[in-house]
Every structure is written in C-alpha cells, then in structure tokens.
C-alpha cells in the first residue's frame, strides 16, 4: 500500500500544531491556515475535529475515541461507509494492482477520494476510436 | 492406352474448337479476358495491401465477396435441379440438360472457390483446410462442411460431365448404369451444398437476421429461380447459333416451374417480413435497414426495392402463360430474376445481416471499386470457363465433334438431340 | 497426431510451396519457415523451441530491442473470470489505450480490443442506442452510463465452433486464444461472435518501435501480421504469470476485477456471490466468464 497522499510539507502536523497550545473545539471557519480546504463531505454535520484527533494532531480519531494512524484512515471512512469498506477489504471496491494470486497493492480510500471533498472528479476521456469509414484514410504504413 | 490416346485427341480437338470462332465469339472472349486481367491486377494489389482495399471492416466483416459466393452456390445447385423436371416430365434426351446443367454448375463452383479465396486474409494458408495436412474442423465448423460439400460437388459434376462427353466423343452410348446413379446422387448433393451454405449463416445466433429457420428453404427457392434463368437464356442462344434443336415446350415448362419457385421464394420472403414487422422486436432493425434505411444510412435501400420489384415482376411474367411463352417477355423475365436474386443474395442477405453490428453500430457498407473489379474478374473467369466448355460440349452433343473414324451417336436423328417436353 | 507433423513440414517443403506461398501471400513478413508452422496446439516441443527462437530473433531485429515470446501454459486449478462494475465505469477509455499499449495492437490502421459504449440511463442496456464514438470534455456525461465490451471468454464460444481450421480454441484456464500463424482470415469467428470482440488485420499492423511491449506470449500479444484475426486474451502474457490484466490495473475507478473462479477467496468470486451480476446476451447461451455487476 502506498503512503497516504499528504499535501506537500503538511505532515507531521505537530510541526505546526504544538500540542502545548490549547485547542479551540468550537466549530468555525478557519482563518489562519487551511483556508484552501473547502469541506464538501457532509459539511452540514461535521467539521475537522470529527475526524482529526484534537489531542494528537498526527493521528485520526474514530467515533469511539480510538486514535489511529493516517495509514489506517480506511477505518475512519469505514465507520460511515461500511458497505464500501467491506467491498474494499476484499478488493472489490477500488483499484488493486499486482498479482491476482499473490502480492497485491491496495490504495487507501483517500488516494482516489480527496477526504475533504470525496466525490470522484470527472475525467477527460481518452480519444474515441477511428470510425470504420475513416480507417483506411489514416494512411498506410 | 487407346483411351489415353483418344483422350489426347479429345484435348487437342477441343483446343482447336475453342480457338476457332466468329468475330462475335472473339469479341466476347477478349472482353472477358480483359476483365480477368483487370481483376487479377486489382487482386494483386489487395494481396499486397490487405483487405483494407475493400470496404469491409470489423463492423461488416463479410460482404460483397461472400454475397457473390452465396449467390453462385445457388446457381450451381439449381443448375442440377433442372434434372428433376427433365426426369419427371420424361424429356427424352435428359443427357443434354444434364450436361449443360453440370457445366454451369462447374463454372459456378469455380467462381465460388475464387470468391472465398479472395475473401480470406491468408490465401497462402488455405492448405490448413486439407485434412491430414492441415486441420479441417469438422463436424463443428459449417465453413469446413461447406468446403467439403462444394469440393465434392465439383468433383462429382466434373466426373459426370467428362464421362458423358468423352463417351459421346468416342461414339459410345454412355452407360446408364454408370452415369444415372451419379446424376441422381448429384440431386441431393445440389440441395446439400445450398443447405450447408445457408447453415453457414443460419447457425450464427449472434446474427438474428440469419438465425431464422426459414433461411435454408429460402436459399433453395431463390436458387431454383436463378439457376434455370441462366439455362433458359443459354438454351435459346444455343438454339439460335447452333443446330441444337430445343423444343419451345421444354423452355415454357421450365419457365412455368420457375414461376412456382418464385412464388415460393416470395411467399417465404413475405413470411419472414411478417414475422419481423409484426413482432417488431429489436431484431426488426436489420429488416428496417434493408428496406428503409436507418437515419441517413440508406445506401442499400434502392437496391433492395429493385430486387423486390424485379422478383415480383418476373413472377408475374412467368405466371401468365402468354408472357412466359413470348420470347421477349420470357427473356426479360429471366434477366429480372437474375437481377432480383443476385441483389437479394449478393447484398440483401449479407449486408443487412451485419448492419447494425452485434454492438448496434451502423457502418454503412458499399463495395469498393477494388471489390467490384475483383468480382468482375471472377465472373469473367466463370463465364470464360463456361463459354469454352459449352463451345466444346455443343458439337459433341450434336455429333459434329467425335473421334476420327467412329460413327457419332445421335440418339434422336430426326430432332437433332432435342430437349423437348411431352 | 504429433508424429505426422514433421512429415507435414517435409511434404510442404518438397511440394515447393515455399516460393509459391511467398508469391501468393505477397507478404514481406513471411519468413522462410513461417508458412510451414504447425498448429500451436499440437506443436511438438522441439518445433516449439525452434519457432520461439525464430520469432524472438525476427521481432528483436525488427523492433531493435530484445523481444521475448512466452509459451506459458495454463496453471493448474485456475479458471479465470472477470467482473466489471458498470455502476462505477465512467467511460474514460483508459483501459482501451492501456490495452493497446500492453497488447501491441496496431496503431495504423487503428485496432482496439476494448470498445466502450455510452448508453442512456433512461434506455438501459440497449445496443441500438449505444455510441462508441462519444467525445466529451469530461466523463461521465450527465444521464449516461458506460459499458466496456471486449472478449467475454465464453464457456461456450461460438467463435471456436465456427473456425474451419481450428485456429482458435478455449484453453484450460478458460482463455479463448488464436494461433495467428494458423488463422486463414476467413472471419467466420467474427460473424459468430455476438460481442464484436474479434478484430481483423485489414492491413499490415504497425507499431512504432519504441511503443512495442517486448514481453509477449505466443497466443497473446506477440506482433501480428495482416490478414489474421485477433482479440482480447485477458493479457495472457501477464495473467499466466499471476499478474492482473493491464486494464484492471489502469482503471482509475477500480471498476475492473479479475481472478480465479475456482478460488473462493478471489475478488470475482466475491462479486458473483454478493453483487447483482449479469452477462451480455445471456439468451445466446454463450456463457461468458466476463460478468458485469452493480457495485452500488
């Protein structure tokens, strides 16, 4: 599994988030930092500290209060998206590469779904096939 | 040894016959030869470049060549089936009908073989079809079956016709015990080649337009129209340009039988159209493409209607005794049948069967000039072969060309080898 | 059967077919022995070795890099299956082009094994309204869904049945393969295939030297010649070595699943057991091993 996709220079978070500074747990619009994050992930009901641990900024936090590493973020996602989590664990949701009968590489949920706005972004499709009527006109080699 | 020497004389004599003729004959031969040369040059280009010189593509991967092949299998089959009425109606010299039919069948099968050869991507590998040497996939592949029956049929006809002509040439009465069983065997064989060819399409559930059980009967019915149409014209030509006497009544009888065959053909077509149109399932799309086109894709529509009108027109002409007996309308009818069946089999069967393709894509196929020239070349080879064979066979049948020193056989001296009905 | 094969080669040699065949084929790619090659399925080991060496030499020279031609046989107790999540496919055609690169498909004239069909959500799966040529700024397009189609590796393949020379057959692991050196190019299989999966080389296929994938398989992605049929082999050169097919690995939405149907732990088995699954044109009884499913 490749490492989680952090923004360049963002991790470890404790570089900025000094554990000594008291945490403001009030839900608010961030003004000093992270303004680029526009939460589009059930934003009516949640904000940063629902997922990020307030006591250890290098960890994520499950609903149970358990703190987990960013490499285990799928457990956090799986709290709400249980069906996807189940499928992902058996390799049916998401991409796998490697060997069908041996070593497989997985991706984390956040490799494909940006955690703060997880809807999959549309892609530009690769070029359509040449129509049969045009096949010979591409010039023969 | 004597037989070999006779055969040598037969060959040299035949050569002499085919190299003598009037200006009309030579114009015809040279015209055909020109087409053969053009076709051959075009084919060499197709071999070098690949089938991309045709307009076939993955969406329509069988087309004009295979359509012509199918049509000609019909001609080959029906030529022999004329033996049946000759036999049933006790036309006395059944031999002549048989010989002409067999010659036509041989020419048609040769053309079939050529059409398949130009259609395959790797003609150099056709030896893979030879059992033992290659790997002929019988019984499961219908094309493998077709290869077997068509080659068998070619050999059968070749043997019969060679035996008959060579016997007559040597002034011997052909032994009925030898040729009659072979001729009788060639009748189911004729039905078999056309049935197997129909099954080649019929056995493809991927193509609903072909996967209809009515296909083989339709093939036979339409063949029974197109094959005799050629022979009728040929009989009249022979009658005009040689001493061949063919009774009008025999020609009328054939025309009458063709009217019945055409009725069955049209009836079966009607049944097919009804089933598709009334049920109006997704499979209707092929029929719609054929007769009305889909969107702007209407390239073959005029040809299909032309085919219907020709076939129907010919049916009317052959049904009415007055018109089927009149030499002009009779021949117009023959030409109409030829056009009708040719368009129906050559284009109307293969192209709509493949359009839209299995994934619903419409690629509008129309033969490329390369395909047309190659096809013309093949037809020219067929006509050439047929002309030369008839040129030799006719004087033999008339007792004009025979082994030196033997008394020619002329079974009906008073009628000059007549083909006549009773 | 194999006993007769050396005789076959000898026979054809003595017939002097060499020159005639070269002339008939009018091909530049015809090496001295390719015309006499036996059918791969019954090729004796010794001939196999010679031919592989010949092929590797020929292709390496042509593409100016070491090219390998594998002959890996099916694995024991493996029957491949494929599953594609049509609720996830966005129609981006990454698979089409990854397949072209992996499997050395001709770039000119273009030949592609995978065809992605755009369909209307309102109409459902309806080939009559499918469009393979959609060209959009971004996909998925509103109101549409996508159905990629390639060889379905049928349990009951109509194409195999129709081939007059047995140039195509189903292997033990379920992959339907083509012997490119045995195919006569009659295209019966293309007429027989209900999925438009088979493609014909209408001209000499061309691959830019630097684009060649040099790791090839005899029955898979080795360079083809004009006049023969080809199709998807589920990346036989990869999957017989345990790897996933290229399309599975490239799919950005992870819609493509591949594995061993006989392994209860495989992804495909999970899909078959837990998802709503269908196959294309099931009424034809071809019994595809390519399953479409709704992951959502």
Give a nutshell description of this structure.
The complex is a heterotrimer of chains A (141), B (422) and C (296). With 422 residues, chain B is mainly alpha-helical.
Give an overview of the whole structure:
The complex is a heterotrimer of chains A (141), B (422) and C (296). With 141 residues, chain A is low in regular secondary structure. Chain A has helices at 73-80, 82-89, 109-112, and strands at residues 60-61, 67-68, 97-98, 104-105. Chain A has one domain (1-122). A two-stranded antiparallel ribbon of chain A has the order 1-2. In chain A, strand 3 (97-98) and strand 4 form a beta hairpin. In chain A, helix 1 (73-80) packs across helix 2 (82-89). Chain A is elongated. With 422 residues, chain B is mostly helical. Chain B has one domain (28-397): Formate dehydrogenase/DMSO reductase fold (Up-down Bundle). Chain C folds into 2 domains: 2-70, no CATH class; 75-296, Alpha-Beta Plaits (2-Layer Sandwich), CATH 3.30.70. In chain C, the strands form 5 sheets. In chain C, strands 10-2-12-11 form a 4-stranded mixed β-sheet. Chain C has a two-stranded parallel ribbon with strand order 1-8. At the A-C interface, strand 3 of A face helix 4, strand 10 and helix 9 of C.
Structural topology:
The complex is a heterotrimer of chains A (141), B (422) and C (296).
Chain A: E1 60-61, E2 67-68, H1 73-80, H2 82-89, E3 97-98, E4 104-105, H3 109-112
Antiparallel strand pairs in A: 1-2, 3-4
Helix pairs in contact in A: 1-2
Chain B: H1 2-18, H2 23-49, H3 64-81, H4 83-88, H5 94-119, H6 142-169, H7 176-202, H8 215-241, H9 248-279, H10 284-291, H11 301-319, H12 321-325, H13 327-346, H14 350-354, H15 369-397
Helix pairs in contact in B: 2-15, 3-5, 3-7, 3-8, 3-13, 5-6, 5-15, 6-7, 7-8, 8-9, 8-13, 9-11, 11-13
Chain C: H1 5-14, H2 17-25, H3 45-63, E1 68-70, E2 80-85, H4 94-102, E3 115-120, E4 144-149, H5 158-162, E5 168-170, E6 176-178, H6 188-192, E7 199-200, E8 215-217, E9 229-230, H7 236-239, H8 246-250, E10 256-260, H9 267-274, E11 276-278, E12 290-294
Parallel strand pairs in C: 1-8, 2-12
Antiparallel strand pairs in C: 2-10, 3-4, 5-6, 7-9, 11-12
